[in-house]
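re: ur question from yesterday

yeah so i grabbed the chain u mentioned. its 191 aa long if i counted rite. heres the sequnce exactly as i have it in my notes:
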Amino acid sequence: MDETSRKTLELFIEKTQDLAEYVSENNPGHLIGIIRNVGEEEWHIHSGIQGLLLTFRMFIQSRDKIALFVLEQEPDGQPRRPELLDLPGMSDNWYEKVGQAHKWVTDALAIAPPDLIYNGKPITRWEILEVFLFGKYAHANAAKRGTFNRWQSVPDLFEKLLLEFVSTLWFIIGQVLAVAEASKYELSLNT
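ran it thru and got these structure tokens back, copy pasting raw so excuse formatting
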């Protein structure tokens, strides 16, 4: 394992620990669910999730090179391959575990749950994650924000989208935790 790979694994583990600490220091029940205050018509994600998203996005954006899944597309429309999958000098076992976690996230995000349809078009988990993160919680991309606002104007659909967004977050975090464990083991082999 070269020094770049070592530093990448160390950063991955550090940021995974940040996620775990954030969850343990906050009420996990708030971070899991969606809420609607008495007298309100709209459902919301608990505000505590916004803090979680600050670290979470490092695992889905290419900038920090620790993404398990890159929520960006190549010009041909295919998802970008995360650099994490190509770290040099890792064991076959590590590559297998990380590859499997990446595949599970990729497969999960490709799903369009049957009850999530807007204007006759199915909405994939990829699109839900992208719109919620980049149109509302982590960025303010104008196109994604417009989609978010249109979805929000359909309360029954929006409630289902919120639930799908939160469950998708937790699924990906579960895969991140598994890769962190594999990475800790990988580092222990090279000390």
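noticed a couple things. The chain has a mean pLDDT of 87. also The first strand starts at residue 34 and ends at 35.
anyway ttyl
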